[in-house]
Amino acid sequence: MKNALRILCPNGHLGFAPTKEESFWIGAETQPDYYCCDSGSDDIGPVPLGSDISVSFYEWQTHDLELMLLASRKQGVPMIIGSSGDTGTNSRVDMYVDIIKNLAKKHKLAPFKLVYFYSEVSKEYLQQKMQQGIAIEGLDGRENLTPEELEHTERIVAVAGVHPFIKALEMGADVIIGGRSSDAAVFASAALYEGFPEALSYYLGKVLECASFCAEPYMAKESVIGTITDEDVKVTAMHPQQRCTIASVAGHAMYERSNPFYEYFAGGMLDMTHCQYEQYDEKTTRITNPLFVPIDGKTKVKLEGAGKIGERYIGIVGVRDPYTIQNIDKVIEWARSQVAERFSESEYQLYYKIYGKNGVMGDLEPIKEIRSHELCIVVEGIAPTEKIAEEVTLIGARQIFYARLPEVKGTAGTAAFVIDGVLSAPPAYQWTMNHVVPVDDPMELFTMHELTIE
After folding, report:
1. Same domain? 109 vs 85
2. Boundaries of domain holding 414
3. Residues 360-370: what's their mean pLDDT?
4. CB distance 114 to 411 below 8 Å
5. Is the CA virtual torsion 289, 295, 296, 298 positive or negative?
6. Which residues are bridge partners to 12 per DSSP?
7. Rg (Cα) of the chain, in Å, rounded?
């Protein structure tokens, strides 16, 4: 067992924007033991999961994978990726596996073992659970999953904990390409596999998951290195002008929790209530005393699912007429009524997002309402077919121009400018699942595959 383990994280969301190379190679020169990075998030909304696409450019994802692959293979140390291709669906895992194959061929790398796992879950699996009387519990205020919600779901992924990654390391993986995963598990798995304490391992994952977001001043996509021992975690900024300070590290570790002192994982809870922080050196903060509290009872795995609402179009309207701006709520009401008159028998959704309506904000609330001299109105129409969605959006946008307001006498259209037509947008999806399913085995929902890259 190592006395200390050092993990380099180059990017808080691989491929979402390209990794900055200077700090990456500074970190690589220190010879870390692992290169780990998460590549996904539900922050991007349900559309990518539902439609099975990436929101990050393929070239950016390839760039980041290439940096990590070349550095890790040069050293002969493992490289771990979670939530491949933004969503961690099976197709995104396959895409990353193909990228690794192509990069290995391009750079004529020596043979290495690649292990990958899938995270998608079938609706049939969950139907069987529900038929057995097993509740699929909702999170964050959601009700338990219903058969109707399940039927409306296009695609489901299970969020892996540390278990598939540890299994891949036990299989001798040099490169791991993971399906949808807990951000922190990507890093914690390496530390747990190497024999370090649970609490420190999970804290290491939590603090590293967003890379340089735990450092100051704010800089995105810069590399950091986390070091774990049996007694502590240290996190160090690699960019020459960044520092990991007590404030930046503690703030990041707690930034997204409803209760900022706790983070839940399959089988336990990370308790950061008693963490101690100290400035270890100019660029490094040392953390001690996190706790990991086991949770009794059945292991539960988080599920994410997305379902299609309909086809979608977008229109943009500019308004400069002062009287129209003053009465913009009535204008929008008129435009809505015209769409409703046209589509009284059709299902549709129509949204107006008004930019510039109200003005300067104080520290906590508006100082006073300041009306802009110009408004930008984004009109979004959703319907079962592209034709209806396009027409709903077009009428909803153009009727702003034709709104009937009192005291307007025969103007020739000075109120608004409507773009010529509306724009097709990706279909609209909604989150249908933010639930947990009880499992007998934490590996139950994940399938492992291995191959030798030559």
Report:
1. yes
2. 309-430
3. 45
4. no
5. negative
6. none
7. 25
In a domain, 397, yes or no: yes
Say if residue 378 is in the same domain as residue 402: yes
pLDDT 10s digits, 97-137 = 999 999 999 999 999 999 999 999 999 999 999 999 999 99
Could you give the C-alpha distances from 4 to 87, 165, 195, 200, in angstroms and in order? 32, 20, 10, 12
For residue 376, what are its two tokens? 């930008």
Give pTM, 2 decimals.
0.90
d(CA 165, CA 170): 9
Q: What is the token pair recorded at 310?
A: 């309909």
* 213 touches 243 (CB < 8 A): no
Q: How many residues does the chain have?
A: 454
Residue 409 resides in a domain: yes
- Residue 280: burial class (beta carbons within 10 Å; 0-12, 13-18, 19+): middle
Question: For residue 240, which amino acid is it?
Answer: P
Tokens of 107: 């750079």
Say what the pLDDT of residue 106 is.
98
Query: Per-residue pLDDT for 256 more than 90?
Result: no
To 10 degrees, the CA torsion angle through 266, 267, 272, 275?
-120
Name the band, by pLDDT with cuts 50, 70 and 90, for residue 363: very low
